[in-house]
UniProtKB/TrEMBL annotation:
Entries under Pfam families matching the protein: RNase_HII
Protein name: Ribonuclease HII
Highest taxon of source: Bacteria
Organism encoding this protein: Neptunitalea lumnitzerae
KW RNA-binding (keyword) present: no
CDD domains registered for this protein in UniProt: RNase_HII_bacteria_HII_like
Stretches assigned to the RNase H type-2 domain: 1-189
UniProt KW keywords: Cytoplasm, Endonuclease, Hydrolase, Manganese, Metal-binding, Nuclease
Gene: rnhB
EC main group: hydrolase
EC nos: 3.1.26.4
C-alpha cells in the first residue's frame, strides 16, 4: 500500500496550493499518465476520472492563500500533502513524495523523489489530481474577479496578471507574502 503525493500551484501569486495523495490499485497502468506539467490540459482532464475510478483511494486538499501567508509556501505544501493523506480510506505503508522536502507523517516511512511525478505512477496520478482540482477552483473564482483572467493564467505570475494587480490591486485570493509586482528599478541621475 504505497501512496503517492504531490502539489500544484506553489509558484502562483493567487489561489490555494492544492495537494493530492493517491493509492493506485495493484497493476494499474496507463501509457498517457505522466507529470501533469508534461500533459496538455485536455489530457489531464481526460485522466482525472480514470485516476479517480482506478485508484484504491485518493484525497485532494486546498490550502488557502491566508494560510500560505501565515506558515509559508513550503509548510503549506507539506501540510496540504499531510491533509490529503489523512483523506485516504486505506492507511498507506509507504509514502512517495514528489520533491525534496517533506515532514514525517505519523509513523509511515516516506521517500522524497526529485521529479518523481515523471517517474512513478502514483506520484503522477497525484500530480494530475492536484493540478486539475486547482485549475477548476481557479476557473470558479475567475467568475468573481474576471479582470485577473485566472481561467487562463490560473494565478501564475504572467505579465497580464501582474498588470491587473497594478490596475485593480489585490484580492482575498492573492498571497500577500509573495512579491506580487517586480520592484521598479530607479537610476539616480
Amino acid at each position: 500500500m504505497e501512496a503517492g503525493t504531490d502539489e500544484a500551484g506553489r509558484g502562483c501569486l493567487a489561489g490555494p496550493v492544492t495537494a493530492a495523495a493517491v493509492i493506485l490499485k495493484e497493476g494499474f497502468s496507463n501509457t498517457l499518465l505522466n507529470d501533469s506539467k508534461q500533459l496538455s490540459e485536455q489530457k489531464r482532464n481526460l485522466l482525472r476520472p480514470i485516476i479517480e475510478e482506478s485508484a484504491l483511494c485518493y484525497g485532494v486538499v486546498h490550502v488557502s492563500p491566508a494560510e500560505i501567508d501565515e506558515i509559508n509556501i513550503l509548510n503549506a505544501s507539506i501540510k496540504g500533502m499531510h491533509l490529503a493523506i489523512d483523506q485516504l480510506t486505506t492507511i498507506p505503508e509507504f509514502i512517495s513524495v514528489d520533491g525534496n522536502k517533506f515532514k514525517p507523517y505519523k509513523e509511515i516511512t516516506h521517500a522524497c523523489i526529485i521529479k518523481g511525478d515523471g517517474r512513478y505512477m502514483n506520484i503522477a496520478a497525484a500530480s494530475v489530481l492536484a493540478k486539475t482540482y486547482r485549475d477548476a477552483y481557479m476557473e470558479q473564482i475567475h467568475e468573481e474577479y474576471p479582470m485577473y483572467n485566472w481561467k487562463k493564467n490560473k494565478g501564475y505570475p504572467t505579465k497580464e496578471h501582474r498588470e491587473a494587480i497594478k490596475k485593480y490591486g489585490v484580492t482575498k485570493y492573492h498571497r500577500t507574502s509573495f512579491k506580487l509586482l517586480p520592484e521598479q528599478l530607479k537610476l539616480a541621475l
